[in-house]
Known about the structure:
Layout lengths: L1 E7 L1 E2 L2 E2 L5 E5 L4 E6 L5 H8 L7 E5 L5 E4 L11 H6 L14 H13 L15 H13 L5 E4 L8 H18 L2 E4 L4 H7 L2 E5 L5 E3 H4 L1 H8 L9
Parallel strand pairs: 5-9, 5-10, 7-8, 8-9
Antiparallel strand pairs: 1-4, 1-6, 2-3, 10-11
Helix pairs in contact: 3-4, 4-5
Amino acid sequence: MIRAINIVTGYGKTPVSKTPLSFDIGAGELILLCGANGSGKTTLMKTLAGLIPPLAGKLTWDGLSSVMVPSRIPKVKGFTVAEFIRTACYRNSGWAGRLSKEAEARLDEALHTMELESLRDKDISRISDGEFQKAAIASALVRDSSLILLDEPTAFLDVDNRFMVLEAMKKVCYGSGRSMIFSSHDIGQAASAAGRILGLTKEGGLADSSVTGKSAVLEACFSNKFVIFG
């Protein structure tokens, strides 16, 4: 279990979160992190990923690890899907750039999990944006982290590709025991896919759907009402 205890997020000495935030993340959870623009979603994810430290409070990991997948990764021509995913393991490669047998096995497993095996040797510039987002998630899977954080994983995708990526995320969480926290501007579809919602509220606090229900979280975060299907 990963636990946040009264953490305050921010940069340098400047806080972003208005109040201390406390919550737990269990195994196999798919969590939507929502809130209005400027509420601090990306800052919180960077804090959970260990990219920036909390200004106050405590994060406990119980021996677990996390990785963050940024948004808007460019599709650079000249890399196959497998090569793109393999770059996530460069720290584990030998002097000649070769991966260990264990890392190669994780690569094969990630391709299988994300249903990308048939695209293994295809140039990433020639696959769909949804398939590329699945490859980006696969690049996090090969790092064998317990928590994967995704900043707008369905941004700029059409309806079919959004559905494909969200279904792949559900498969990872419910099948492997890894957890994911993701943000999205497509609140209705994302809220339906997520098993749980954490919301940064208009008052600066944190709402948790495991306590109040999904609709109550969305009402606490946004002025507009959202219809949740499923």
